[in-house]
Design brief:
It is a single chain. This protein is α/β, with parallel strands linked by helices and 205 residues long. The chain contains 6 helices and 7 strands, in the order βαβαβαβαβαββα. The two termini are 13 Å apart. It has a 7-stranded mixed sheet with strand order 3-2-1-4-5-6-7, with helices on one face. The structure holds 5-O-phosphono-beta-D-ribofuranosylamine (GRF).
Amino acid sequence: MIKLNISIFASGTGSNFKAILKARKKGIIKSNIPLLITNNSHCGAVDIARENGIDVIHISRKVYPDLSEEEYANVFLETLKKYKIDLIVLAGYMKLLPDSVVDEYENRIINIHPALLPSFGGKGMYGINVHRAVLEAGAKVTGITIHFVNKEYDRGRIIFQKCVKVNEGDDEYSLQKRVLKYEHKYYPLIIASLEKIISNEKSNN
Ligand code: GRF
C-alpha cells in the first residue's frame, strides 16, 4: 500500500484530531499526518500538533489581509503541494475552503458533522449550536455525518452516518459529549477505509 499524506484542518479543541492520531499510533490509519492547517493559532488543535511533532501552518485573512482571493487560495494550494497532501481531513474547521482548493481536491476532502445531515447543517450550525437546535426541534435521534466537502457548508456527498439517541433530560452539553464519542470512534475508521481506496487508485495510475 502506498503511504498517503493527510493534512488535518482544525480551528478548535481538536478532540477528533486527537482520536485520529491515536488511531494512527495503533496502526488503524496508515498515512503520514505531517501537517495541521488552522485559521486559529491559539486553538487546542495547535497544541496537539506541537505535542506530536506535526507542523502547524496558520492560514487566515488576519495573516494575509492584502492578498486577492486567488492569491489567498494559492497559499493553501502551495502549502498542500509542498507537503504532498493526498487527503484533507476537516476536524472542526470553521471556514469554507477556497473554491480552487475544493476543485483541486475533489473527493479528497472530508468533514465530520455532529448531526444527521441534511438536517441541522449549514452556515452557523456548528459546535453547541447544532445540539441546541436538535433539542429545540424535539428530535428523538441525532447522530454523526461524515461527508465529502464541496463548495457549500455541509452539502457534500454523504459517506457515512450513525444515529445517536437523544435521551430524556439531555441538555446540549450531555448530547454533545455523547455524539463526540461516536465521532471519535467512526471518523478514524472512515479515514482508514478511504486511505485504502485512494492508495489503490494511486498505485493503479
Ligand atoms: C465536532 O463536533 C465536529 O463534528 C465538528 O466540529 C467539532 C470539532 O470538535 N465539525 P473537536 O475540535 O474535534 O473537539
